[in-house]
Specification:
By secondary structure, this protein is α/β, with parallel strands linked by helices. Helix content is 23%, strand content 30%. The chain has 2 domains: 228 residues, Spore Coat Polysaccharide Biosynthesis Protein SpsA, Chain A, CATH 3.90.550.10; 62 residues, no CATH class.
């Protein structure tokens, strides 16, 4: 299976309330990672696999997503958009896609996760095996707390997924689902039968996957990433950028800075202005932001509207 055989799908409709104050102005999936929107990184991963057509499910501030990515032509793909309407969970968002998917498998990204060392070809190779109708990206997770915030995957002796468990208090395995999926269109039969949960009043993708498995479909787990970096809180945005930067800095076009300015292990994006010769360390400066004071900027995110201390 090549990327040309797949439809790309990204879910980008959530309100992102935990990442306020960014959520007042930016949908989470367009927040910048190394100088470009998180969504753009995902689109480029799909494009590099050979995916040509991508559908993005939008909701909160969806027009900002459209403004950033447009029709996809500048990225070498074709992008179209579907509005989720009420945000009632991931399975509900997937249900909006059925008219677009037609008869091809679809590769599904959650739009608020950055995947490190992603090997999409490994997922498609598993899908190529006889009878396989679904693939879940997974990783071995050392943190119990991270397991409790996500879902765990239980395999049988033949490598088939037999159970998925949402947010377990006592996880029986360290194999964690990572928010990246590949499904045959028959998966929509399970999505339509997914009940609304009592706990969160949403339609959970894990319930849909379990229905799919219980119906006898072959679902496999792909250890195709080294890490999944979730964008949940403001500090996560800075930490993800710093982790990917390593010891370097990234300075965009048209940045104004006087002689004597020091920039260390930071991202300073296009058109930012540093008025005084200060030090900017381990910080993220948004496009067009202005740093006016004479105090060093350390572990901060600076936007045109806000300064967020991430100590």
């Amino acid at each position: 299976m090549s990327g040309r055989d797949l439809l790309g799908v990204i879910l980008a409709a959530g309100k992102g309330t935990r990442i306020a104050p960014f959520s007042e102005r930016y949908p989470k999936p367009i927040l910048p990672i190394l100088g470009k929107p998180l969504l753009q990184h995902q689109v480029e991963c799909m494009r590099d696999l050979g995916v040509q057509r991508i559908v993005i499910v939008i909701g909160h501030l969806g027009f900002e997503v459209v403004r950033e990515l447009g029709d996809g032509s500048e990225l070498g793909v074709e992008i179209e958009y579907v509005d989720q309407g009420p945000t009632l969970g991931i399975a509900h968002a997937i249900s909006k896609l059925e008219p677009k998917v037609e008869d091809r498998p679809f590769l599904l990204f959650l739009g608020d996760i950055f995947f490190v060392d992603l090997d999409l070809a490994e997922m498609t190779a598993l899908m190529d095996q006889d009878g396989v109708r679904g693939v879940l990206a997974v990783k071995e997770e050392p943190s119990i707390e991270a397991m409790r915030r996500n879902f765990v995957v239980l395999e049988d002796g033949d490598g088939r997924v037999r159970r998925v468990i949402e947010k377990p208090r006592h996880p029986a395995t360290r194999l964690k689902g990572c928010g990246l999926y590949l499904f045959d269109p028959v998966f929509f039969d399970s999505v339509r039968r997914t009940p609304r949960t009592a706990m969160r009043d949403e339609y959970e993708i894990t319930d849909a996957i379990q229905i799919f498995i219980d119906d006898g479909y072959d679902v496999r787990a792909s250890r195709c990433i080294s890490d999944d970096l979730n964008l949940s809180y403001p500090r996560d945005l800075l930490d993800i950028n710093l982790q990917l930067l390593g010891t370097e800095s990234l300075v965009g076009a048209g940045v104004e800075r006087p002689d004597g300015t020091v920039i260390e292990r930071s991202v300073v994006m296009d058109g930012a202005v540093i008025e005084q010769p200060i030090a900017v360390r381990e910080s993220l400066i948004f496009p067009g932001a202005v740093l006016r004071g004479d105090e060093d900027v350390v572990r901060r995110i600076v936007t045109p509207e806000h300064v967020i201390d991430c100590h």
